[in-house]
Amino acid sequence: MKKISIFCLSLLILNLSFGQPNPTAQKYGASITEADLKENLTIIASDAMEGRETGKRGQKMAAAFIAAYFEDLDLKGPVSGSHYQPVPLFTTSAPVVAIKAGTTEISADKYLFFGSGRTNGDVNLPLVFAGKGSDAELEKLDVNGKAALVFLAEGASIRNNAVLTKLREKGARALFVAVEKSDEFARLSGMARRFSGGSLSLKKPEAGEITGSFVVSAEAASQLFNTTFEKLKKAEKVKPASVSYSISQAVSEVRSENILGFLEGSDKKDEVVVVTAHYDHIGISAQAEGDKINNGADDDGSGTVAVLAMAKAFSQAKKDGNGPRRSILFMTVTGEEKGLLGSEYYSENPVFPLDKTVVDLNIDMIGRRDPAHKDSPAYVYVIGSDRLSSELHTLSENTNKTYSNLVFDYLYNAEDHPDRIYYRSDHWNFAKKNIPIIFYFDGVHEDYHRPSDEVDKIEFDLLALRAKNVFYTAWEIANRDNRLVVDKK
Ligand SMILES: [Zn+2]
Questions:
Q1: How far apart are CA 230 and CA 218, in angstroms?
Q2: pLDDT in tens, 154-169
Q3: Distance of CA 489 from the midpoint of ligand 1 (Å)
């Protein structure tokens, strides 16, 4: 008896905390099918879409498909009647750089430039030698307003390098990284070619703003200090020198678009639930062998078709008289791969007031498994749910237990996780405006950002389960009595 009564009690507690599934929600959740997801993904991630690179033809075709899909569902175009929110961007061509040691021009095959920006003619700066950039070396060095030359450890990354960051924090205006070995210099040359130009920004690059570093060969480094490389390496009698350089890059405009479908709510229609996924990807890899098209089936075709499926389910619910109380904005954004640009543009130019925006549920890669979950039950990484609203976190947990029973993996939600995933997809542009978010993610796998991220590698049963989980979460948030409370900063 006792055992039974405890059993009954625990059932009661379970029911109280997780709730019974709502049959109406389940009816529309069930309309999210593997077949639909597959049909749409086969189009979105086809070779014809050419990898959907921001501003390119493939992205425009994907945009047209999504806008037509929203139109078919009778979703409203909320941007003066249109589904398109234009996102004006700027691009720069590969930089043309010239460097002089004193008055001597350094031969162009002896240096590389990793970065972007333009100068108005020659910049002349005192040049100081920063050795290997150790704390002891940097401490006594005055680099403020000067150029600095430093040796980095072999194989060190030029981007996000701690030594370079420190030099910049100490006020260095230009950074020169000396590379001793010619094969290392050749490796970096290849990288510089791949990264040069083509970056996109929301802000028009102005002359004078230089970001990045120069990489110089052993020969150029010795020329800059008018000494031998051996002496330079040993930091023997290295006298301060001067350097001048100029950088020019052509700036041009690129047009891109976020695609929005709006479903108006009923009695709480002023409050908006936002569901996002990025539909852009990284385009065509000119240097790849064989298949060059980065189809981005998982990244983020999977999120895009999940948004389409959710839009279809909610719009059918509304047609049947079961529409959500709050409004829902289905938004596929552009420019994610170029630095979360489309979502940043939206957050700076919102179509609906941000103070009426209740949540952003962002989906970026939900069609695959990562190596850590090769044989695990259906899972998804859940990131950010508890950062701004404890209510959102509880709702997300309970909704999952009521409807989906996915394993929620919070690995990447740890504030000190080195991958910093919380800052790396479009939800961040909502979170930074203090709007609660949840980010759904399947992890990094071997086809990440490669032409092999193809439709036939998608696990559609898993994709459907995850898409339904986001759907039920949106359903609960859109239909509950009270707006989610933001109780954390
Ligand atoms: Zn992505």
A1: 9
A2: 778 777 788 999 999 9
A3: 26
